[in-house]
Structures are given as structure tokens and as C-alpha cells.
Design brief:
Length: 223
Amino acid sequence: RQARKLGFGERAFMSFSFWVLGIGFFGGHFFDTLFYYPERVAENPLQLFAVWNGLSSFGGFMGAVLGAFAWQWRYKVPMLPYGDVVCSSFPIGWMFGRMGCTVAHDHPGLLSNAWYAVQYPGGGRLDLGLIEMLLTIPLAAAFLYWRRKPHPWGFYLSRFALLYAPVRFGLDFLRARDLAISDNRYAGLTPAQWLAMVLFGAGLWVALKFRGREPQEPPKPPR
């Protein structure tokens, strides 16, 4: 709906979305298995292709970016405007995604006696899916507010990276360390924390590169 409002061709936008979603879905599993469960890969490398068995949010981000660049290479059309439209709506979808994490309780945090702690086997714990879902609500509201007027391409991509990355970086310090499913850590940080730093740097680069530019017309659709 937002793409139509801004004048994008529906067929081209659906094509872009398909590439981003498809490769993003694969990337979410590939990253999750490779960095969170490397022992599975050592036992059976084909686990990298078992896309029904585990997903990682940052892996999905990486796959989506690769999908966007692949689409740009295939159709010779700049992917930034398309990606920015997707990102302008993404926090709304992310909020519902984290609702699923909240119901599944698949992101256990540290043991806690706080009133908002969730009862896991062995005691109350912080539920990081719940916390992130609640923190995403104001982010989604801000994006909806910003959509009331036009912005240069890259605005939403950079804002999401700059606002989400520090939150995720901080939340991962609250992840459980005493469970069999606890995240692997590399030099004291989770894989998501390392990628959060990359995401923040990329967002800062986009924000500085396109700062002060006027809103532009949608690019011509691919032939």
C-alpha cells in the first residue's frame, strides 16, 4: 500500500519483496545454524540447508540485504528506494514477529524476581522477546508518524539501523548464560551484538551520505 502511494510499480515492488523475503529467510537459518549451533554443522553440513530448523533475526537481515543487492544486479535498478519503502513498514511487522517470540518464550534471559519476569522451569526469567516487542511499539509509532511527509531515500533504513541496533546490543547482555540453549559468545559478545555494531555503522553511513537530499521520484521499474 505504501509503495502504491509513493508511485512504485506493483509488479516491480512484488518482485523485489520476493527476492528479499526468500533470500532473507534462507539467510536467517544459515546464520543461526553456523554461528549459534556450529556443532550441528560439524556433524552434518546439510543442516545449513534445513531452513525449517531455526532462524536468526540478524541472519534474516543479512539475507535480506543480499537479496536486495541480487535483485539490483539482476534488474539493473537501484534497490535503495525499494528497500527504504520496505523498511518504512518493517517495525510494524517486527512488532508482530516479536509477539510470536513472546508466546513461544524462546528468548530466555537472566533469572529475575521482577514483576514482569516470566516463569520458566527453574524460576522467573526476563523474557527478551516480550521486552523487545514492547520496545518496538514506539519505534513502529515513530515510523508511522514519519510517513506523513516525504523523505529522501535511505531515511527509514538509516533510522531503523540507528535506533534498533543499540537496543538489541544492550538487550543481549540480558540473555541467559546458564542454559543448554544459551547463545554462543565470541570475545564476550553474541553474534547478534557483533552484527548490531555493523548495522549501526551502516546506518550511520547511509544517514550521512543522504543527509540534506530532497525527496526523489521512484525509479523506473525494471524491464
